[in-house]
């Protein structure tokens, strides 16, 4: 009786503290408790990007720094992108908890300081600090869920992340537009609350994570790859700067050329450092011998470019052509967000039930291509938002089919001790693709506008309706002439919402046809992702979490501790094809422990409840509460 009571008490204590049992397993209740903190952190980072982009012009006007407003975005982008792979590697070495807590703390501090900025220079500096925190909130949340949930069950939990991502995409413009539109709230400028709203949410996330996230960690001695980190900074900073500023400077401007040269030197430096550090490298070169990792990295770059480049312009179209406010445009994007959530949840539930993930990215890419091509055919100045809605849903479903299955495939294919660096690397490649795609598509858009706008107005000059509108609105005619002369400076498109509809029509027609061109190019870029993803191996999904896999004895692959079949050889049943037949492609061979179709987690994985598990081979101070003290 006493033993039963003790066991019940220990189970309740573990549930309250959200630590695993003696086998390293978490209950659904514990997973959901931890998930609350992870989702709050991800929500903060995702919301911040859309909130600030909506209000940046109001902020720049108030701080008298209109010409510097781009740096508030660029500074955040640089630090969040660079810090992403650093979080992944360091958390593999020293544990997730301290770095996730650090990321939340830095993000909250940066938000607080952004709200008290008195100049655009200050705001850019504090946004850079915010970005350091945001880089960890995104990648570590996906890594931690891999630590506590086996791949076979993980997909259904990852659907929550897509729900948060989608919700923030809608709420961001709504909240940003509302707060930026308030002259004062509690005696302070309304836009400052855009940053301060992060503080209580961040404090709540910090409390939930600090109280509930206790993951056993098997610390490994490693050298920290500082030369590689420095090389990455030298490579990425000029690349990201020219991606953001190149359209303004000119792609062949001396400043742009300097960025290219410095970036090339940084890349060479980074590559040499990664080769010399081997397994201790920030991004070990040998990981590219893993076919799943390489395919996922390449597809993330391509899909990131097409995905973010295409999605970015839909709100632009709604605001400039339809005259929607940022708040209304955010609400009009609900069909896209609904599609993302539907696709993610459907993919997650199906993968958990069947164990098959490969076909979701392929189907998702096909849906994205169809929707982007269709959008390029129907978008014009008079297209109804309701006509766009079904295609936005289709595009969203395609995105939902791609986001999490690719992350899941990578996490399943690498050693449990490398989940952090693998997850952060794929996230990093997607960010880079999005940044480069956005820069490229905006350049295409403005290049097309510079040709189409003058031609459209030249053609309109001969129409009686246009001549009558010019005569009736001489002041607007002068504004229009200044804005469109030689292609014009179209940085302030609000002019075309103020002037007579007849005078604005040629510009809106030109903008719509330019959007059509960008959508068509985005479809072509995304189609390249289909070709890449054809080579993604379908591997059996592990039935053990990252924590359980990490306790495999030294010298054995993760499979010997119950990992799945991401090995170079998978013994098929009669008539079945191998999942990936190539030497050393995904994980080292596990000899007689290799997985089969009948035993997808390895022949020797099953252990009865009363037998010792790999977790019991750890020192006591590495075990969860109830069996010892948690490491982190």
From TrEMBL:
Protein's membrane topology: Multi-pass membrane protein
Residue intervals passing through the bilayer: 34-56, 68-87, 99-121, 127-148, 160-181, 193-214, 226-243, 255-272, 293-317, 329-347, 359-379, 385-410, 431-449, 517-536
Keywords: Cell membrane, Membrane, Transmembrane, Transmembrane helix, Transport
Domain Major facilitator superfamily (MFS) profile: 34-541
Entry's Gene Ontology molecular function annotations: transmembrane transporter activity
Stretches for region Disordered: 558-632
Compartments reported by the entry: Cell membrane
Superkingdom as given in the UniProt entry: Bacteria
Predominant place of localization: membrane
Residue stretches of biased makeup (Low complexity): 558-581
Family per record: Belongs to the major facilitator superfamily. TCR/Tet family.
PANTHER family listed in its UniProt record: COMD, MAJOR FACILITATOR SUPERFAMILY
Entry protein name: MFS transporter
Source species of the chain: Goekera deserti
